């Protein structure tokens, strides 16, 4: 009987514990074709958690957007500028965000199973998933600083990326719903702020 495949949460935890100073580019090198989803998952995790991350979320969101754009273009491997690829993730990500992420992934792994796998293996659908991820990242970036409104679209991106790794369309649907709720909330708050500012004038 063949050995059971290692869970992704264990892979991520083992990798993060073995590497002293993980860099952004190392994810693509270690996880291969899964590098797109893994990178978005890790890069958006700090924005999806209320834990302090030392103000690096905006930089990570820019990189996540670039990765998702490459999915839209149909690339098979992740490309990053050398300076970005060598950038260390920092203790806020490695000591706080990744352990939180591992716990979240393990919770989902208890209930997840491959469902609707064709969605994640079809080239056109993967490009559409890239569009979804870009939208999630953009709305997370549009959220006012220190408002906490970036949490929902960032969490949506995390769930969509996790759905790609687990090939579970149910998690994908949950991620899209969460991201949509976050986008509506940001637009609603933004419109209210604009109206308030207009009334003052």
If you had to describe this structure to a student in words, what would you say it looks like?
This protein is an all-alpha fold. It has one domain (8-200). The protein has helices at residues 8-18, 24-31, 35-48, 57-72, 82-85, 91-111, 117-121, 123-142, 151-166, 169-200. Helix 4 packs antiparallel against helix 8, helix 8 (123-142) packs antiparallel against helix 9 (151-166) and helix 8 runs parallel beside helix 10. It is globular and about 60 Å long. The model has no long low-confidence stretch (mean pLDDT 83).
Task: State the gist of this model.
This protein has helices spanning 8-18, 24-31, 35-48, 57-72, 82-85, 91-111, 117-121, 123-142, 151-166, 169-200. The protein has 201 residues and is mainly α. The longest helix is centred in the last third of the chain and has 32 residues, at 169-200.
């Amino acid at each position: 009987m063949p050995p059971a495949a290692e869970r992704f949460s264990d892979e991520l935890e083992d990798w993060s514990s073995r590497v002293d100073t993980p860099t952004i580019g190392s994810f693509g090198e270690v996880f291969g074709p899964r590098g797109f989803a893994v990178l978005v998952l890790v890069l958006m995790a700090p924005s999806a958690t209320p834990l302090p991350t030392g103000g690096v979320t905006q930089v990570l969101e820019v990189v996540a957007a670039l990765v998702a754009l490459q999915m839209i273009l149909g690339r098979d491997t992740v490309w990053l500028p050398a300076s970005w690829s060598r950038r260390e993730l920092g203790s806020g990500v490695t000591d706080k965000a990744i352990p939180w992420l591992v716990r979240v992934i393990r919770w989902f792994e208890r209930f997840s199973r491959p469902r609707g796998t064709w969605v994640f293996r079809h080239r056109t659908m993967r490009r559409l998933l890239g569009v979804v991820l870009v939208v999630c990242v953009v709305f997370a970036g549009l959220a006012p600083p220190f408002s906490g409104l970036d949490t929902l679209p960032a969490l949506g991106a995390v769930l969509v990326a996790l759905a790609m790794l687990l090939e579970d369309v149910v998690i994908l649907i949950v991620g899209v719903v969460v991201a949509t709720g976050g986008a509506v909330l940001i637009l609603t708050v933004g419109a209210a702020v604009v109206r308030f500012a207009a009334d003052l004038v």
